Amino acid sequence: MANMVGDWILVPELTTGHDEFSKAMGMSDAEREATRNLVYTFHLSRDGDEWYMKVVTETGVVFVDTKFRMDVPFTYSDLDKTATLTSLISLRNDHFIEKMTQDKNGVVMHWDVDTYRDGDFVITAQTKDGATETQRLRKR
Question: Which CATH architecture describes the domain 2-139?
Answer without folding.
Answer: Beta Barrel (2.40)
